[in-house]
Amino acid sequence: MLSLNQASEIVDAALGKARELGLRPLTVTVLDPGGHPIVVKREDDAGILRPQIAHAKAWGCLGTGHGGAAGARHATRDPAFFSALAAMSEGRVASSRGGVLVRDAEGALLGAVGVSGDRPENDETVAVAGVEKAGLVADAG
Amino acid sequence: MLSLNQASEIVDAALGKARELGLRPLTVTVLDPGGHPIVVKREDDAGILRPQIAHAKAWGCLGTGHGGAAGARHATRDPAFFSALAAMSEGRVASSRGGVLVRDAEGALLGAVGVSGDRPENDETVAVAGVEKAGLVADAG
Amino acid sequence: MLSLNQASEIVDAALGKARELGLRPLTVTVLDPGGHPIVVKREDDAGILRPQIAHAKAWGCLGTGHGGAAGARHATRDPAFFSALAAMSEGRVASSRGGVLVRDAEGALLGAVGVSGDRPENDETVAVAGVEKAGLVADAG
Amino acid sequence: MLSLNQASEIVDAALGKARELGLRPLTVTVLDPGGHPIVVKREDDAGILRPQIAHAKAWGCLGTGHGGAAGARHATRDPAFFSALAAMSEGRVASSRGGVLVRDAEGALLGAVGVSGDRPENDETVAVAGVEKAGLVADAG
């Protein structure tokens, strides 16, 4: 499982990448493998639902065992199942790019990262950059 | 943040516009930037869910940082994500015209207005009229 | 059932009384007999949960058919039933002073008023003053 | 409203104080005035509900406009109303020490801090230390 130090490093590196790219205000969340927050940071002027969206992107990855890009493809093919997932998880799942699983070099699951605030592909870029800066492996699906 | 006096002026001006246009019975809600009500008024003969719909139109704008017209376009393109938003916000988001962000002349966010009861474009007209009557800027998306 | 004009008069008169008495920032809500809002106003600097508290005081009166002072006495005698009421109403009931039923001269039920923000007895004083200013009868229990 | 930089400084100073005092693993949350997270950090080995408890301590302060110590005294005197608050806020309120309002030197409300994981008085000590380190005023009630 990710330590607080590792999770903080991921979040700060992700936000550093976002500022470098000039993205819109973001929220970045790192969850442990049980889906519980370790670190959340919301930038100034980000919308008030962004923490839940970032949480749901990361939680959705842990919920299904797939990165958010895989979830987004699945949701497009099977929207009814996706609606059922939203309901059965009580709103904890968003199957969107910007959610990635965090693994170590051997592939062991350490947690998940969710990013929300810009376009889904940009959110994903930032999530991956944060994880890699911490010397870990991002599984975006 | 909007004062009670400003929010009351927005609501009364919006309802005045609605009566001038002969619209159906409306509900108008003004929220602070955190999504909490300052003023709600529901006209005689309006449906009993209208307060929640007006609230969700305004809240959805604050949740994502976009006016309701932008939200409505997004929902049409990506209904699965829209369903997820509804679930993860516990029903607090309606991405529909009739929700507008309220800004000052410098663009600072002061709150949001939601209107429900007539066609979405008419609801939006009334919300914009109310905000402008109070000397503020309506961001409809 | 109360009209929007009557409900607005009650709220504005209640807030006028509160300012005259120098009370803390208040929220005042008027519900129709079905428990749905007609008017809500929250004064500057009032806490963000005050709209729900005012709503629950008014809704609780309608839920049981008794004014809030009767509800408060009941809750003191039977806290377990009160907890059950909170759960079964999904948080819509607060049995506290500051909630009053609104009746006409013949005793017919027209709606309910909830006030929150100061001490319960002061909230009730303001609710009663608002109803009486509108020429109606406040049933505080 | 607190910036992300200010909120980060509060959280890091609070956790620094906790390590200095040798407290149990903590979670620290900083909310904006609308009750939405800016920063959350959960230390290694903290329980999985701690983020919600810290959130509810901070949210409860914003909900009623009082610091957590005042809320805790109120809850002891009036447990039935406290149960109703929990229900009507859908579990967003914990009236406990460890929640403090954050104000500027003029008394304006900037947000709230919640700390959970050790004894309530220690949680409060840490919350106050974090706020003061950031040059702001902690209102513990």
Describe the overall structure.
The structure is a homotetramer of 141-residue chains. By secondary structure, chain A is of the alpha+beta class. Chain A has a single domain, classed as Beta-Lactamase (2-Layer Sandwich). Chain A has helices at residues 4-21, 50-64, 68-77, 79-88, 120-133; strands spanning 27-31, 37-42, 99-103, 109-116, 137-139. The first copy, chain A, has a 5-stranded antiparallel beta sheet, sandwiched between helices. In chain A, a hairpin with a 5-residue loop joins strand 3 and strand 4. Chains in contact: A-B, A-D, B-C, B-D, C-D. The interface between A and B is medium-sized, with 26 and 22 residues. Strand 2 of chain A pairs antiparallel with strand 2 of chain D. Chains A, B, C, D: InterPro entries: GlcG_carb_metab_protein (IPR052517), PduO/GlcC-like (IPR005624), PduO/GlcC-like_sf (IPR038084).
Average pLDDT of chain A, rounded to a whole number, is 96
Major beta sheet of chain A, specifics? Answer: 5 strands, antiparallel
CATH class of chain A: Alpha Beta
CATH superfamily of chain A: Haem-degrading domain
How many H/I helices of chain A?
A: 5
Total tally of structural domains of chain A = 1
Instruction: Give Rg of chain A in angstroms.
Output: 13 Å
Q: Which regions of chain A contain 5 or more consecutive residues with pLDDT less than 50? A: none
Strand order of the largest sheet of chain A: 2-1-4-3-5
Name the biggest interface: A-B, 26 and 22 residues
Secondary-structure class of chain A = alpha+beta
> What order do the SSEs of chain A take from the amino end to the carboxyl end, as H and E?
HEEHHHEEHE
InterPro entries (chains A, B, C, D): GlcG_carb_metab_protein, PduO/GlcC-like, PduO/GlcC-like_sf
Pfam family, one (chains A, B, C, D): HbpS-like
